[in-house]
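Let us begin with a simple case.
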Amino acid sequence: MADTGQYEQTYERYVGGSPEAERRLFERLAREIMKVQTKNRRAGSAGSLARTQHAKPALGVENARLTFHDDIPEALRSGFARPGAEYPATVRLSNASGTRQPDAVADLRGVAVRVTVSDEESHDLLATNFPVSHARDAREFVAFAKAMAGANNPLQKAFGLLVKLPLAVGFSTATRMRRNIQAATRHTVNSLARETYWSRGAILWGEAGPVRYLLRPVVGSAPEPRPERRDPGFLHRELAHRLVTSDVVFELCVQRYVDEERTPVEDGSVEWKDAITPAVPVGRLTVPRQDLATAEAQAAAGRVEELAFNPWYTTDAFRPLGNLNRARKAAYEASAAHRQGLRFSTEEPLRNTVLGIPVGRFFAALNRYVPWHRLPVSASLLNLVFLRKVLRRLNLIDTDVHEAPPKAVPVPVPVDERLRTARSYDGTYNDLSAPSMGAVGAAFGRNLKPDYRPDLFDTPNPVTVSRTLLQRDTFVPATSLNILAAAWIQFQVHDWVNHRRYPVGGKAVEVPLPPGSTWHNTPGGPPENVMRFAENEGIQLPGNRPPILFANTASHWWDGSEVYGADEQTAKFLREAGGSADLRLEDGHLPLGPNGIPLTGFNESWWLGLSAMHTLFAREHNAVCAAMRREYPAMSEDSIYHAARLVVSALIAKIHTVEWTPAILATEAIDLGLHTNWEGPPNNWLNKLGLWLLESHSLTGIPKTLPDHHATPYSLTEDFVTVYRMHPLIPDDYVMREHHFGQRLENLGFQDIQGGAAEAAIRKTGLADTLYSFGIAHPGAITLNNFPRALQRFERDGEIIDLSVVDLVRTRRRGVPRYNDFRAGLHKPRISRFEDLSQDPETVARLKDVYDSVDEIDTVVGLFAENPPTGFGFSDTAFRIFILMATRRLQSDRFLTVDYRPEIYTPLGIDWVEKSGMKSVIQRHAPELAGLLPRDASAFAPWRQVKPMRDGGSDAAE
């Protein structure tokens, strides 16, 4: 067989100059198509989304047949087009409009045919009853659809054709399109069985090259009776009447390509005239006589109506050609997914668009002189709304490897019904229209363009940077928080991100040590003059390009995978035996693995803080299961497990959103903004009016909105990973106390509560006293020279690492821009002097000692050095990644938006999430701590301390 790729090179021209540029255009057009569907739904009466075009069916049958002629010309014998071959076919006949209007209204008519060759192969043929398209290309097609969206009366249609369309495509193009439409719809249609249908766009026909096809009625078919045109559905009734007594038969013909001038592939508005390329009969499509009024026929019609036809559901040898057809793949997939409730479109109200432009510019100008956090609360909240708009527009970079040009594909397998109501184990099918989005193995995205500089990997020396600027001199506490806040964020990061590493002994990073220094890279190993640790595995890119993309071995979704695992085998292993919905616990604690580390979803870098969090939420899962068993005795254990997993995951997301984050970013504006994210704005008419005028989507909490990826496939990003490097939160020293009398139990160093030692510690101390000990003590402040010394010599997977050096090296090697470029990319002014970063003379002196210029400053160092806004636990630059990604993690997730509802979670489950928080979780599993929790603050604020009882003037535990 000839190389079918030659036709792409010879006959096809890509808009923008490349398949990838054209794909980006088509993705934008696909989003516009979904908006057209929404407008058409509002204009129609059905209330549900219909097809963007061809919304009203006249016939849907599953028992048609396509038979190829015995004398099919030799040149046209290819693939499934074999002499005498017969295949089952599904046929849909319809009006072309995007709204369901009476059949007598002037309109085009269409046919869609699915020819089933085998379980693995089928071919969708789509045609309309006019030989040319009103549009030359996809851009014109979408412009026309937008102009006519929602037009269901003559005045609206006239306005669309005479005003909207010329504004979109220009007067001359609109005139040509209007003439084509008028010529096509002027024809009176009395029977869809007597119409000829043309493909209008070309397809490949194996070795024969490009063809257009048509379906024309077989001469001798019974004439139609005089139609009752006042009947709004007379075309369907005419077909039903006809099929009672006779078959409806069409002849399949093809017209072969001659040359680009007379039979163009790219221009769908040019007719392939029969005088230039005669239609050659190759087969017959037969709709057998039948009674369409039977229950069986009506059920079949309903199934046909649920189908999504797409010309790209075919094979490479018969793939569609030309701009219009290439656009149809993205547009039809989006339209079908939108109609089937698998993909969503959120339209910005016109008032928000119009008012947002001047207000956004006002805040951009204002922020040159007054940062957002120095404005009054209401103004700062609006300022943040517009900052997030800018970040969404400019700082969501798609790193997915997309198909360009489009490829032929089989008809997609229907979504497993179980995945509509339960999270998958590996994060697949959260977005039902893009199953792999955010799943385990999906690449990290980017908020800033990667800056991959191998020449600067070791400049300045990362070990020197660490020892001078990161290493903890004296412990600097974050006095507004407790150590549970430090444990919590590591608990969350383990759910969100994990880069795959090469095994120890495999590919490694080697960091040269400063002169006179040595390092032991393995326990008991020899001293070496390099620091060595496992390299990250990058995603292979074409052309031997450097690895700037890395896969996440956790799912990107907020799905509690640190508790439940990121694959089915792990998840099932962690459940109680016998199919119970409960997670395995031993006397209330996590079961131990052979290495002394608990068995849980993610247990790397284990320490006592993680043990407390994992134990707490494993118990919480079991508590939800117990409540569901009582409330819903008929519910299966598997259903209880998946519902409880949804509840616990959502509760974790809520706690992080409305409790942990306002605790670490302790300002009124952030507290209001984050509560607005979850539950909508406070009952304040001024705030609500401002949001209604400028961003009405914020008038409800995100759980009451539709999923929105903001035009970029959802993923967590390398920049997000960078700003969550918060290791300074971890103290080196811990005092364990019992909560009854406040007595000291013991003093411990981090090494005493790390790895396998953590489980011995929590079993000895107990969960309640562990939580109390952490609740009354402070974590470290996220600042320079406060990196825990215990993590600078840390054993993991058989290697000894300095985590502060690893943080620096990973950020550099993953192409995250250095600090000055990082802040500039997030729309903050660049710094020109070290003094612009810090007002502390000693910090400035250390920075100058390490870096030759401000442009060399490492991202992590700059973020730690920056003076944060009042009340903030980390820098304003880091906060910009946060404000972008915090809402995105909620808004992209189907189970935290459109499927956050009682039908999925159960009424008890929704009530559990809405009424619970970190305090109630702690009280449920350690009720004796209730009186020690902060009264007017979150569980991450310092707890009330029990004054130790003294005996003879000394601590009773000493």
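The second case is a distinct protein. As before, the sequence precedes its structure tokens.
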Amino acid sequence: MSLDLEKLDLATLSEACELECKAAQGRDGRGELPDDLWKTYSAMANGEGGVILLGVQEKPPGQFKVLGLPGLERVRKALWDNLHNRKQISANLLSEADVQPVMLDGQVVLRVRVPRAARQLRPVHLGANPFGSTYLRRHEGDYAADDETVRRMLAERVEDSRDERVLQGFDVADLDLDTVQAYRNRFAAVKPNHPWTDLAVPEFLERIGAFGRNREAGTSGLRLAGLLMFGRAEVIRDALPHYMVDYQERPEAKTEKRWIDRLVPDGSWSGNLYDFFRRVYQKLTADLKVPFQLQEGQRIEDTPVHEAVREALVNTLIHADFSGRVSVLVVKRPDMFGFRNPGLMRVPPELAVMGGNSDCRNRRLQTMFQLVGYGDHAGSGIPKIYRNWAGQHWRRPVLQQVAAPEQTLMELRMSSLLPPDTVALLEGQLGSRFTALGPLERLAVVTAATEGQINHSRLRELSTEHSADITKMLGRLVRDGLLGAEGIGRGMVYFLSSQHFPRRDLVDLAGEAANDGSLSPETASLTPELGRLTPELGRLTPELGRLTPELGRLTPEPAAPAPGAAWIADLTQLEEADLDVLRNLAFPVSSRKRVPPELMRQAVLALCTGRYLGLRVLASLLNRRDQGGSDLRKRILNPLVQEGRLLRALPNANDPRQAYLTNERHG
């Protein structure tokens, strides 16, 4: 992304790209390259890229002060020297154009633009060993990647096609032959005169790529693609322990956990990808209206909507990282289709939408689907989805990635940009405050109501307004009380103010995709994600809600259910009277710089009684210098959780969106 810092203020820049500001003043104030710059460089390179500004201080988070950069040329030379030192960093991604001095608020600062690293260069790490020295961007911080993530990045680097691997100890006996026969029938229907149609099963499977040869090792056998496409679920898990495919149909166009139809590998069917595709595609399109059309005397049963849904389902399967811990998940609601696959995209989402850029993770699977008429040519599937959806005058599809745990999400909503029922609801609630809004403001408020939240990048997708104008408009809506906000920088999200609409159900649950719920003996072989649901499936949980706000937005399921407990992620959600109650509870701690640990513990328990309080909310109420709350979490919150006196809302203890509730059943 090309950014002219002379025309953008820092607030706009922080929402337009991943931004990190470093004072870089040095001990003597003469300017120095910060040591921690390399962690940020690694994290941005391993993510979506970003901008580092040297000579700008960010303290507290979200508040910027331009200091300027003394000794700029010395700092720039030190940067280039270290970029070419493999003992410092594993790859230099920068060109001269990426490291430039710029004027900002009358001061000269150094802009370092870090591009997204190509898959073949990841992980970008400090020093010679990627383990323990690879960093990822989480919220506004840089965190060391765990070993499992590093191994996955290394595998992505060396394996152009993740499903190419020839498996040892697997053969035809591990396949579901009914699935193989169904595939062959489809192949014969699509290619009736093809010479492969009359081959015996082993030869046919070899021709389509399900079987292959490892020429280096001199062995032959079943490829991972063949096992995924035709294997039995219990055998697939021998090779991929976290393998899970899940379909759910929800009865209403609203946030809820109920489902009326579900398909998971429960032993009643094979559980492989081809059977999952056939069954789920029928369910997704069962009630789509098909206009009557004839072509050469035959009725056409396919429509652009069918084609888009089919492409989205195939894309979900062929791009999935089946070594990840997140399940493949497909949702059907009256107002939308949602798709989730484990793993991040190999090309940036904006390039995927443009088309012509393809780096399929499972190329053998892609070929097998294409041989029977499913899936488009390389790089054209996602543009076709967007084009077909636009042809219906529906909301632009949402395509996004979630970094922890790694997953890619696509949402296809069957509603216009300004649904009449939503507009009527907002007019009834807000009256003239809504009708007086301009077109862009109205679009932002309606989208926040329709999708649960809105952010800067989503509005840029939906409108043609300048980035700076969008930032100023969102800030205006927050000041006027129509929208609430949380997060900082690129992580800033906006939602309908709780003054008018309760926000309890509007919580981002994408980070909860890996749920460590206990499994019954009947489902012990399934992944932990499916750990609390129906009696038939051993109390599996309706996991499809574990999407982003755009893919269902379910209320979080706390560790110990607390009916009626509100979730407060931002103090702007509260009316002044309610905020005063919390401030009074926090006063014994907030009024003092240093307090005994026991007094701090008692204040936390009092604040969290009957309500989930976000980590940053607690840190703010208690007036802690560390507004991010990391010190509070380490010294007070984690021990209280271990003692059973405090409950976490999210399974990942270090999730920046974590919230806490007092366990009133304790003791």
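The longest helix spans residues 304-318. Confidence is low (pLDDT under 50) at residues 1-8, 502-563.
Keep these points in mind for the review questions at the end of the chapter.
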